[in-house]
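User: I'm curious whether this sequence folds into something compact or stays loose and floppy. Could you predict its structure so I can see for myself?
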Amino acid sequence: MEMAIRFIENKWVQLTGFLLLLLLIFQINYHQNQTEFSFCVIRNITGKACYGCGWLRGVAACLHLDFERAWQLNTLNLLTIPLIGYISIRYLFLLFRNATPKNIQKSCE
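Assistant: Here's the prediction. I'll summarize afterward.
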């Protein structure tokens, strides 16, 4: 168990995981139709989009620098994408300042 914790606390493992997450989001097809199956429980039950519908596809559109499409998918992307960018840059800064994950968690509180 201790070996697994040391592995997770390795900053290069965390950086690799962060970059893989960005790569996975980049691969999302943000051009898909709204009539296809959605993972949103509210949309599946009521048939209407919730405030979060289209958010992840909007993030993918921003990674492709298609800001107009991101706005069309979900107008809240105007607020959430800069916030996520700030949190990500702050996390990477703290990660490479030789901070441990415990210190990063304390600094976010």
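Summary: The chain is about 65% helix and 0% strand. Residues 52-109 form one domain.
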